[in-house]
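Proteins fold reproducibly. Next comes an illustrative record:
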Amino acid sequence: MWLADKWNDYEVIDCSKGEKLERWGNYLLVRPDPQVLWDTPRTARGWTHPNAHYHRSSKGGGQWEFFDLPEQWDIRYRELTFHLKPFSFKHTGLFPEQAANWDWFGPLIRDTGRPVRVLNLFAYTGGATLAAAAAGANVTHVDASKGMVGWAKENAKASGLEQAPIRWIVDDCMKFVERELRRGSRYDGIIMDPPSYGRGPKGEVWKIEDAIHPLVRSCAKLLSDEPLFFLINSYTTGLAPSVLTYFLSLEVAAKHGGSVQAGELGLPVTHTGLVLPCGASGRWSRK
């Protein structure tokens, strides 16, 4: 398991009964988590007086209950700053477990000694984009949501990366990849964080079980002659890490060699000393 254990501004304090108690900077949030299937006593401080609590509805979705939480606040990870705010379906605008991947590909970019082009698909609010840019890469950031791309730009500005070589694209990811192939574009690193289900800006339907392998195959054709890395993230519980290994072995390692690894991402839980699983990642690197 790859742990995101270098945070100062974030921690999972405890988790029980389908929920996790988290510290985001100076604020405590209680949010549901589908992996928390255990029922243990909630003895950690903070459960009874959080700043906000997201309640899951039995009919699907849910809603926030606010006690004392600003509309927006910031947290930092290393040299990066992220704007946070609670919005629909329990999210805050950041997935802290992804810091484990940022710390993996950052040195690959920094140590290569040449210009590096990175493509970040389903790029959300830009965590991976900013980590790659801070390491020195020229990044193309693609997401179907105009609002998310705007949020990512705000994070770039807050992180002092407003002038970094980042190309911001609002588009359906598969269609963008197809156009890049026709244009002959090439990238040294590719990152993708596809949702289980979603729609593009023109109503295009995305189902990960049907679309993920064709997308990986097409993206592999975008790799340069000397690529550095390829990263796939998955929050779909039915998509095992070994499936990601298979994709990367077939479509990337078969041509470029290198090594493939896949595993769970995790966040340490302060109160118990255990680890909360947070989805899977597949990693290919030339080394």
The CA atoms of residues 4 and 113 lie 27 Å apart.
